[in-house]
Specification:
Strand order of the largest sheet: 1-4
Helix content: 40-55%
Distance between the termini: 34 Å
Number of strands: 6
Structural class: alpha+beta
Mean pLDDT: 89
Order of helices and strands: EEEEEEHHHHH
């Protein structure tokens, strides 16, 4: 069984006109956790799309971009890692709609946010 996604209700927008996309199971997120990766142009609109995941600020920036710009579950699964997402959740600067959509779907993220 593959990963599925939920397109959140209209009230959960990643940005104007685009609903946030959320995976149903954080275990489906199996993206890279270290090294240098290059995001596709569709997700990151700049000439140098390489990101060093070993640098905390760069890794967090990648997570923010992917969570905001992804339109398909395979993009989430390819670039995000479930345990890493849980660990950095409160360090991410996300649109309100993205944060609420993910916290509504995943109790662990909601609990982390409430504990902060």
């Amino acid at each position: 069984m593959g990963a599925t996604s939920t397109r959140s209700a209209r009230r959960y927008l990643a940005r104007p006109g685009r609903s946030a996309v959320v995976v149903d199971d954080l275990a489906a997120l199996h993206g890279p956790t270290s090294g240098v990766v290059e995001l596709p142009h569709r997700l990151l609109w700049r000439p140098d799309r390489s990101v060093n995941l070993d640098q905390e600020w760069a890794r967090n920036a990648l997570y923010e971009v992917v969570l905001t710009e992804a339109v398909r579950v395979d993009e989430l699964c390819a670039w995000l890692d479930g345990p890493t997402l849980i660990r950095v959740w409160n360090d991410l600067y996300l649109p309100r709609g993205v944060r609420h959509a993910w916290e509504d779907r995943h109790a662990v993220l909601r609990q982390i946010s409430a504990a902060a």
